[in-house]
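Hi all, long-time lurker, first post. I run a small reading group and we've been trying to get comfortable going from sequence to structure in the token notation. Rather than ask abstract questions, I figured I'd post a concrete chain and ask someone more experienced to write out its structure so we can walk through it together at our next meeting. Sequence below, copied exactly:
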Amino acid sequence: MQGQTFLDALEHIYFGYTLAWERLNVKTDCPCNACQLTPALDLKFAAHYGSYALQDHGMYVELVGFDVNLVHRLLKNQITPRLGLRAYAFFTEACVRALDIGEIAEGMIEYGETFPDVGEVRGYVHDLSAVHEREVGSQAVLIPPEAAGLVVEFDLPVPPSLAWDYLSEPDYQRKWREDELMRISGLNKGRMGAGTMVSLSPQISGTFAPSDELIADWKPIDYFTYRCLLPSAYNTKIRHLLMTELAPIDSGTHVSMRFGLPEAQDPRFTWLVRLLWHIIFKHLARRNLKNAARIMAELVQEDIRSGKLVLEDLGPAYPLSGELQLPAGS
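-- Answer (accepted) --
Happy to help. Here is the structure in token form:
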């Protein structure tokens, strides 16, 4: 899993928690102490990188070892009294190095926790308080299957957290798009997200000029949506949405790529764009998306054969999981 995906997924968990908390707080009028104390509850995370062993208990498998114990101890910290944060994620320096998120960590708060038998454990604190406001304020950009002009579906034999990387990580995109000249701009401290632009080279977009795909909606590890803008020969630009949705299945991840019906920036030409879409471009788009799916499946198998991707079956308590080491940079 690439470092940004780990951080995005963590923020997604926190946002889901805050939504559940809001629903509970609004709907309950129970006078018991547990329900009355819900407004004082919040969520905190501790993330560390180290070694561990697996202890089989029959019905489940437990992670044990020094570094596992250290994570538990890091949850009993002084971050709230010292920094005034209630909702946060603490990443140890070892974790930041392993995830290669040094640039992202520059926007976090440096912090250290000291234990008598271990010494100081240094790391970075990520304030999660703004995550809820940011996500609530964002607008969902979706393409329901019944409203799509084209739907291409396929499965990848990896969990959604890793399938997300194959679909979104720039180096992998260049491979399955077959566009080594693809450019990424608009990163936020190295993070992709809403507002990031993917620019395809002319030979890939099939036009005389580069085409741009702006990330309009970014919900790791559920879905992301591009607003695509392509030049045309009719003195107007063609725009459409492209949504990719991930869903967990027993064998890995089911991927649904949905191509929105195109329209012309100049509404007078939309009828012509739609006509050409049904006659020519829909078939080209289907071919390109199926080819991308084939390449992605080959990339997964290549990473498994090379040992870059290691999938483990940890038993019923841990669904299909894996570890993927990605090249640094984008």
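A couple of things your group might point at:
Confidence is low (pLDDT under 50) at residues 313-330.
The chain has two domains: 3-135, 139-322.
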